[in-house]
Design a protein that fits this description.
Subcellular location: Cytoplasm, Perinuclear region; Cytoplasmic vesicle, Clathrin-coated vesicle membrane; Golgi apparatus; Membrane, Coated pit
Structural class: alpha+beta
Distance between the termini: 103 Å
Membrane topology: Peripheral membrane protein
Radius of gyration: 38 Å
Shape: elongated
Pfam family, one: Adaptin_N
Keywords: Coated pit, Cytoplasm, Cytoplasmic vesicle, Golgi apparatus, Membrane, Protein transport, Transport
Helix content: 40-55%
Number of strands: 14
Largest sheet: 6 strands, antiparallel
GO cellular component, one term: perinuclear region of cytoplasm
Strand content: 5-15%
Length: about 800
Amino acid sequence: MPAPIRLRELIRTIRTARTQAEEREMIQKECAAIRSSFREEDNTYRCRNVAKLLYMHMLGYPAHFGQLECLKLIASQKFTDKRIGYLGAMLLLDERQDVHLLMTNCIKNDLNHSTQYVQGLALCTLGCMGSSEMCRDLAGEVEKLLKTSNSYLRKKAALCAVHVIRKVPELMEMFLPATKNLLSEKNHGVLHTSVVLLTEMCERSPDMLAHFRKLVPQLVRILKNLIMSGYSPEHDVSGISDPFLQVRILRLLRILGKGDDDSSEAMNDILAQVATNTETSKNVGNAILYETVLTIMDIKSESGLRVLAINILGRFLLNNDKNIRYVALTSLLKTVQTDHNAVQRHRSTIVDCLKDLDVSIKRRAMELSFALVNGNNIRGMMKELLYFLDSCDPEFKADCASGVFLAAEKYAPSKRWHIDTIMRVLTTAGSYVRDDSVPNLIQLITNSVEMHAYTVQRLYKALLDDISQQPLVQVASWCIGEYGDLLVSGQCEEEEPIQVTEDEVLDVLEGLLVSNLSTPVTRGYALTAIMKLSTRFTSVNRIKKVVSIYGSSIDVELQQRAVEYNALFKKYDHMRPALLERMPIMEKTASNGPTEIVQTNGETEPSVVEAKHPPPVTQPTNQANDLLDLLGGNDVVPVIQNTVSTKPASAGGELLDLLGDLSLSGGTSPAPAPSVPTSQPSFFLDGLTSQPLFNDIAAAGIPPMTAYNKNGLKIDFTFERANPNPNIAVITIHASNSTEADMTDFVFQAAVPKTFQLQLLSPSSNVVPALNQGTVTQVIRVLNPQKQQLRMRIKLTYTHKGSAVQDLAEVNNFPPQSWQ
């Protein structure tokens, strides 16, 4: 059989291949020849064939058939054979294959070989791919080599010991005596590997950490010698003596000094020396300085030393290398909470990084800028961040807008500044703001009584300029509906008032209704605003015409609103002024408290249950009955609070299914209420809660109960008693989700027998977070004048992991205190 080609010739041949197919053909041909050679037990060329096989493995071709040949080479007496055999074992074998156990005896023999290079090969292989079984069998041999006087073997044995400890941590104590002596070695290679071994032991065992803290002075002495030593060509890298060893020692000092006063005190001086004497013109020096900064920040260092560390990071921000700037920003972001004032000194440099072309640096600079905002610099920082918001890429706008909102809410110097800032964000990045920005701004405006005229004028001007930013348009519509009379009367004192007529205001709102830029939610805001203006403007007939037009809209939401508003104009005109009166001041409280921000699907409307000063109503009883008539009659009051549905016409049938045979006093099932279109809940019905139908809520000490617990969804009821009317029970549902995926499109529906009257408010959200990370709450008010035992049929619908889920349940075990 002719001699196989050499490795060099194979490489040259493969590189001449012009296509992948041609290369594959060459490899397959050579593999066939290698297999034939292996079958013939050709010892002469086994080493050459395995070397070629390893090259093919590196190119990504299968080479597993050479595993046993590697073992044969390892067993050979020739060093060249052993070298290729061990290299092949490290590349082709791992602990998942039983073949590797056959090497154990060969490695043990080679660890005791008379030639140090053969011993080194065995140590490298064991440290690279040794399994836990091999490590247990050979740990004693490694420990012996740690104690040898040969520095070449000691450094390899130390790295092999690291691998043994990772595989079998309980063998750590075996290496303890030998490890202590390694630090007295002069050879830098042994010192480096011994520090790596010490670091591994300290990270894995608190006992070892406490034991090795006594070595801190010795480590400090080694580091000092490295810094003070003169030029050494063997270890010099860009003018710095062995930077790799310096970085390793600094990392070990950080672990030893963390949480320990004595160790930290012992290393303070050397850290200051490293920080001040290290050359920063080369990347090598920057690596050492960065490791020094991390060590200073982690140990219990002096305040002056921490300031020095932050100043080093500040200098990094001026470096031309983007990686160094990114590292500096990330480190400052971690330390800004503990050393806020020191980081503040570099505020201008950090803000300049917002203009960097690199997106990673811009994002880190943005996060750090928001972390630096406080009451003293809020105006200047917001100016810079708003400028950044104007010019940044779309991917930054959402996070930047959220950050501006949070900072403005926390540190706003005045309400006017707060309103101006949020309006600026809505004007420039309105499409990117979070969903809760609209209700939050509405609440802010409502609570700033003295700013109502100024705010509605500013928002009106903004509407004239641009109606593409939907959150801005929604807030502006709400404010015009609430404070349109102030806009028309020109009562603004903060800036020059504008002259606006009622028709001009209505023209703008009608323009929103017909604009292609307006979303269905925005049109709902605009129609509601026009309806509110019927009690503030004199153009009532024009408003009636607009409302009646949308009574036949193809948008179910607009149609529902328009029909209800038409009903207000006709049958319930005596209620209209009270229902559409100006919203009182809203406060953020618990979801079942006297004041709420009620979130619906896709939009948010403030809903207030006035607690302390209800407005005078001449006929509370009649109005309450009218309200219940509007909600669905006095016989049965099922209430559906639903998400967007593709089958609104089936709502009545769903009510019949929901009620089923639930009846306490009559032999027949109760008749369902008139169906309510099941798109988003009506703004009109939300607005009704501002009337004092139900009075203040006072805790009644009623025990909670679990109404439903199935498929990871748990529904708990908590109870309160309305005061002064004891016939009204206030039930708050708390929906939690213990599964690993969110439950979306969550809808809770309820129905009660005809002897009760029920009102179901909007839920806090339609998503139940996974892993019990939050709850969805919803308030139910039940009027029980006859003090009968409470029974309820509930229906739950939601989407979980892409599948729609629907379930019915009957709740009969209400606590007696809730209905007696």
